[in-house]
Structure formats: C-alpha cells, structure tokens
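Students often ask why we bother encoding 3D structure as a string. The short answer is that it lets us treat folding as translation between two languages. Here is a chain of 101 residues written in the first language.
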Amino acid sequence: MLDEKLEDLQELLQSYESMVRRGLPDTPLLHFINLLVKALEHRSLKLIETLEQTYSVSLAREPLLGSLLQRIKQVYLGAQPAGGMQNIMSTMMQVLSGGQS
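And here it is in the second language, the structure alphabet:
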C-alpha cells in the first residue's frame, strides 16, 4: 500500500517538474517533501523525525502539514500518536510523587 502511494507521489512530483521548465522551485517545503518521500521509501521513522526538526520553521507556517505528517507516521510507520500513553504515565508519576500536574 505504501509503495503504491509513493509511486503516485513520485509521478505527481515528476509531472510538476515537467510543468515548470527549470524544475521545482527552490523552497524549503518542496525540499522537505522530496526528502520525506525518500525517508518513506526507506521506511525510516528516525529520518522523518530528523526532517521534522530540521524543517520545523517551514512546517510551522503550514499547521496542517504537521498534523498530516503525524498521520503519515502513524499509518505507514506505526508511530504512536503524540501524547497518548506517555502523557498518561507522566501525569501518574507526577501525582504519585506529589507534584502538580
């Protein structure tokens, strides 16, 4: 399923490149998307998280991209949703140690 989606995405990027004579515009978000495709091809959650940190300023300009990226990581790489059990355990430890939550 992921391989089919990646092929579709690569075709879309190639079509876009052919429409623009000089290739893709030199923007951080397009660099991010190209690198994201490569990271997905390698099924590397660690690489995607590194890209996410590296391009955080650009991603912050488009809040929807952050939520889409989280969904991609969950669906295709098995990442856990942000928060979830980790937040519950952290809150429990704070309560048990007498800290404020």
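Translate back mentally: Helices lie at 2-19, 28-41, 45-54, 56-60, 63-77, 84-96. Keep this in mind for the problem set.
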